[in-house]
Design a protein that fits this description.
Helix content is 15%, strand content 59%. The protein is mainly β.
Length: 199
């Protein structure tokens, strides 16, 4: 029993580093893709629709919806004409339930698959880093600086450069731990435009 607890504790401490090691391995792998001209850099921006999901001590759930924005950059690594991995770094700004602004850094790693000439679907894990909560000291243990999430989305291809992007971001871990089975998670619906630059 003690051994199992020790293994779980080690995993919790190391999961962030395991995740980024996986990211580095993926990037190294795609650096060897012969068709480098298929890899593209781009920028993106749009609306950030945040659901604040509060779990209370009696297991009931309260939800509040807020609207903000996101902006970021991405690199698309093509494995073939239909399959790619996209690494992103995005910043989002959205008010919380008492209208104090929450600043988050999002780093998703997405597997993308193109469906015909007009659509693409994608999904993958996302790391989030809590940067700030307006008028709040986030150094306390109540706030989680690292948040794990998962993305699932679809893109509508307008042209070779421009895509309408829509995704749902589901929080796996909480951003605030209030104790006694109480926590707050942040789920997102992001809708915006992505622009790829020509090589």
């Amino acid at each position: 029993m003690k051994l199992i607890i020790l293994v779980v504790l080690i995993y919790k401490c190391m999961k962030k580093y395991i995740y980024y090691s996986f990211f580095v391995l993926l990037m190294l792998n795609f650096n060897h893709v012969k068709s480098q001209s298929l890899n593209q850099f781009g920028l993106k921006a749009g609306a950030n629709l945040m659901e604040i999901r509060s779990k209370l001590s009696d297991n009931s759930v309260a939800k509040v919806n807020k609207t903000g924005f996101y902006i970021g950059a991405f690199m698309e690594f093509r494995k073939s004409l239909d399959l790619a991995i996209q690494a992103e770094i995005n910043y989002s700004s959205t008010d919380n339930e008492i209208n104090d602004n929450i600043g988050l850094l999002h780093i998703p790693i997405l597997l993308k698959y193109k469906l015909g000439t007009k659509f693409e679907i994608y999904g993958g894990p996302e790391s989030q880093f809590l940067l700030s909560v307006n008028q709040t000291d986030i150094k306390s243990n109540e706030y989680k600086k690292f948040i794990l999430a998962a993305d699932l989305g679809v893109g509508f291809i307008i042209s070779d450069e421009l895509t309408i992007d829509a995704r749902y971001n589901w929080a796996i871990s909480s951003y605030r731990d209030l104790g006694y089975r109480q926590n707050i998670k942040l789920n997102f619906l992001q809708i915006g435009l992505a622009y790829k630059f020509e090589n």
